[in-house]
Design goal:
Blueprint lengths: L1 H21 L32 E4 L12 H4 L6 E5 L6 E5 L9 E2 L2 E5 L2 E2 L18 E8 L3 H4 L6 E7 L8 E9 L3 E12 L2 E12 L8 E13 L4 E15 L6 H6 L14 E18 L2 E17 L3 E20 L8 E22 L2 E28 L2 E18 L9 E19 L2 E12 L3 H5 L15 E12 L5 E13 L2 E4 L9 E4 L2 E14 L4 E14 L5 E3 L6 E3 L11 E12 L2 E10 L17 E12 L5 E8 L7 E5 L6 E4 L4 E9 L1
Parallel strand pairs: 3-4, 5-8
Antiparallel strand pairs: 1-7, 2-3, 5-6, 7-8, 9-10, 9-36, 10-11, 11-12, 12-13, 13-14, 14-15, 15-16, 16-17, 17-18, 18-19, 19-20, 20-21, 21-22, 22-23, 23-26, 24-25, 26-27, 27-30, 28-29, 30-31, 31-32, 32-33, 33-36, 34-35
Length: about 700
Amino acid sequence: MFIRKVNIIICVLILSVAIYAQKKSDSISYAYPHDITVSGLQLQTTGVQQSFQPRIITGDKIGNEGRGFAADEIFRMLPGIKIDNQANGARVHVSMRGIGILSERGIRGINFYLDGVPLNDPSSFAPDLFDVDANNIANVEVLRGCGNSLYGRSSAGGIVDIKTKVFRDEKLSGEASHTFGSNRYESSNAVFGAAAGKFGFNLSASHTKGDGYRDHTSFYNDNYYGQVNFLSEHNLWLNVIGGYSHTYHQNPEGVSLADYNSNPKIANGDAAPFNEGLETERLTGAITGYISVAEGVNLRVLTHIKHTFFTEANNKVFTHREFTTPGGSMYAEFGYGNPGKFGAHEIQLGIDGQYQQITERQFDNYHSQEGDTLRSNSKIKQSGIGAFITDRFCLGNNLFVNANLRVDNMKNELTDELKSSGDLSGDRNFSNISGKIGLQYQIMEKLNIYAGWGQGFLPPATEELVNNPVTYGGFNSNLSSSTSGSFELGLKDSRFEEVKYEVVGFYMTTKNDFDRFRVPGRGDATFYRNIDGSRRIGAEISADLTLCKELKLDVAYTYSKFTYKLDNPMQILMNIDTRYIQDGNVLPNSPEHQVGLNLSYSPVTAVTAVITMDAFSKSYIDGSNKESEACDGYALFGAALSYTARSLNDATVSVRFKNIFDKKYVAFSEPDPDGNSYQPGAGREMFASIKVHF
């Protein structure tokens, strides 16, 4: 029945596009191509008012406060997003508006795109951001709040769209940089490109390595990325994308509270003897296209494929996974009526889908030596398909409405090829229909008030399904999908260069939210279960202030009140004591207050000094909210000084300091049956770099 609904919707979408493509009436008077940024995303309009307000980070603001390598340095000034750097490298844990906060690692509830290519898999889980080179970022556009009806499965927290740099000079141009610093950190990067006539290309390469702050936290990352694009005289645009990344991270794991207090650099006692770590190698190819097929009707197409090899060693097993992930999307957009006048519409109709095949094998870990005993051998097939319709229309007098509807179907099929504990083969399928509606009123030019309500849908992710708490191999058959509903109200003011600000408040409820736990005797493997639900109340404030010509201040503040909503107390599996999650308790790893500050001073054009602060209030390590095990609040201060030689093609020399006062703090915490574990953050660090342009 569900598949029939999907097929009907797809047929209606295609038929609607065909009808509008043939329509020649004078009512279609506004063609959008020249107002639309070419991208794989649906909401990339500049000519139409939106009730979904994006926050944009430009590339020149990235990397000014640290190494410019890990995601915590890219997104630190975005309210509503929390990045936990677990090992002083590129492996991070990401959450937005508390969605994904209960996962151990990776990205849940946020859809990430790199030049329109999704980084999430069919279950909408993004295991890492290793394909993103911070030195190659032109800008980052972030849409917070439920975007499920726009961008599909697992957009309950929001969407992040990353655009890479483009060089449009006819002559070859670009930039190269080298950075070195504390803990034997070293990074070399180059980005360059050219354009001639209808063709252009851009290439980037980087190599990064370091020992990390703690014992057993060495890492390296190689990243190669390129684009070749073509624009014809007939408004046909094609972009071919290729990328390769190879990353290895030693994993120090968390330590007890006593070990954290005595020596924050120490690794877990099992980490080095079992050589715990993660290695990821990924090859990506994609083609994106855009064409104007008729007056006011435009078609966008994306096709991509990724191939990934992943190996993880914990203190029990080596896990090997091979992923093949093809996918694509197609949608049409057309305008109706005169922009800004009553009855004007921008409509988008489309479908998107991904397929993934995973081969997983597990072997015993005998103190960093891989054993011969095969613990699990599975093949997993996943597919996700969605169809959507969006309509942005004008009610007149600067009043605009966005309405979206989407249907999703996600399938998982596992074949147990070992059958050591019986046949663990099975399938898990999830489907959902979701919507969102938003309203924006333009009080005056560049001053907008907006409100929106939307639904979120999170099927169990790959990482959650394949970690079976009952035995090695097979799916976690107890998991169901999570749904959410969210309302937000905001004000955005960008009228003045001296003062730009945005204030947003939201209220979100979830059902069957995901909770992580560990099982005695299964080592450091993390497993997942559903809880009754949660309630999230939050506020996000950002401001860019020009105090005077030479002095600028950026502020980002997040208020988060994330609590459990339970019908009955839930027991936490512990060996050391008995504890419960009570209704109204605060979600783990969720500080109530989060503040980011950037104060920059440029006495002359060539010199810039920056002072930074990142502050977090107290957070709890598990849902029982035990005060004696809570992670204390902290504030980290940093500074940077750079000099740019205009006479040498804008060559820049800079020095940066992180955590100047060597503050001890917990970067990430997680539950453990033998006593909760803490992952200490990096102490004082210094980095120096030189960047040249050519």
